[in-house]
Write a structure and sequence with these properties.
This protein is an alpha+beta fold. The protein has three helices and twelve strands. The protein has a domain of 131 residues: Immunoglobulin-like. β8, α3 and β9 form a beta-alpha-beta unit.
């Protein structure tokens, strides 16, 4: 709507426009939020990574290999004893379940003090001699004490030892599995109160 300008005669060509100025720093339109731009800025949930079957298989093979290597070390002839020994036995050789014993390996049992016993190898009981009695036998000067090829019992250490010999009950240990039983008892109680412990080893 136009009105005559103040102080101007009606009908003159000059007029006054009512309303806001033509320019106020924007075009008069209110900008809305662009839905596409908003969607682009939203964080997309990360997808769970799928397990690679090939990588899983390789990891399993490596784990099994480590287990086998550890087991081989434990059962080697130089490894620690893994079987629980009774309190009357301090140690045995070859170690239980050894898989790398030699054909001429000694069978050795360290008993608790005050005990004695015998060895049974592959079902055969080996005769036992007391080392103190052998050493007490008279010998000629310079002559060495001859120990029979049987189990030797050392009372001072309470040990039993058998070394394979050509003249002994077990000349050598053939390749394969071997079984040893030590029957032991307190010296002051006698064999009627004996106990036994059995283990095995493999000769390569």
């Amino acid at each position: 709507m136009t009105l005559p300008a103040a102080g101007s005669p009606l009908g003159s060509g000059r007029s006054l426009r009512l309303g806001p100025p033509p320019h106020l720093g924007h075009d008069g339109q209110v900008s809305g939020i662009d839905p596409d731009a908003t969607a682009a800025t939203e964080t997309t949930p990360s997808r769970r990574r799928r397990v690679d079957p090939a990588l899983l298989l390789v990891s399993a093979i490596i784990a099994i290999g480590l287990v086998l290597v550890t087991r081989g070390f434990l059962v080697s002839v130089t490894g620690d004893e893994r079987s629980d020994l009774p309190p009357t036995i301090e140690s045995v050789t070859p170690v239980p379940d050894a898989e790398q014993a030699l054909a001429q390996t000694n069978v050795f049992v360290d008993l608790a003090p005050g005990h004695t016993g015998v060895l049974v190898i592959d079902g055969e009981e080996i005769p036992t001699v007391d080392l103190s009695e052998v050493q007490a036998s008279p010998v000629e000067p310079g002559e060495q004490v001859s120990v029979p090829p049987v189990t030797v019992f050392e009372p001072g250490n309470s040990t039993l030892t058998y070394t394979p010999s050509a003249n002994g009950p077990v000349p050598r240990f053939e390749p394969g599995l071997h079984r040893v039983e030590v029957i032991h008892w307190r010296i002051d109680e006698g064999r009627q109160r004996a106990r036994s412990f059995t283990w095995q080893f493999v000769v390569v």
